[in-house]
Amino acid sequence: MNILILGASSDIGIKLLETLKDKDYKIGAHCYKNDIKLKKFKKKFHSFKIFKQNLSSQKDSLKLFRSYMKWSKKIDVLVHLSGNVSKIKNWENLPEKNLMDDYKLNFSSIFFLVQKIFNSMKKKGGKILLTSTSSAIHGGGEDSFGYGLAKLNLLYLSKALARFGGKYNIISNCINPGYIDTKFHTKVMKRSRKDLNIRKTKNKLGRAGSPKEVAEFILFLISRKTNYYTGQDFNIDGGDWI
Hints:
alpha/beta
């Protein structure tokens, strides 16, 4: 199975690579900067290649697609885990540049990459798994507005792919993590430990999810056990919004 993982150096991406058991997988591991985290996986799989590429434009997306396909020759599964917030700022004062940067990074660059992957998968089918956020349909956060808005578009895209791709046996689903214990909250969003302890109380289980829990669910969704699941979005949030 040929798999391309976007954002493979993220906490969830690393756990996914650790969770994948089949050494015959051919893994393309995309990252923006942290390629050093991925080098340890080169010996785990039959074939493993790191693709270091910024994703903020159609040109970037096309470059990554061409590089991956030149190496792999085909793609069976896309797992999208990438995403970022360009600037932490209340939405009432969010400048146009930051709004558009968030949109390009979290949606439009993914859209253009998926365009190419979808066309490639028409021949033999495949699976596309996108990652949104469980707060997107509820308005998101005041200081990560552009990120949430872009992530909401991924829900639409995922369902459109399922609708248009069914006749080609292209399966598309979306996962929506809530508060997962990753560096996104501390390094990107600059949350304090006090903030995170308060955040835990917002969901019904009273704790953060772990990257491993998300990784194991991703593994389930890309397995043959879920070949009749398509057009679905799955919240992984401890019951945040019930």
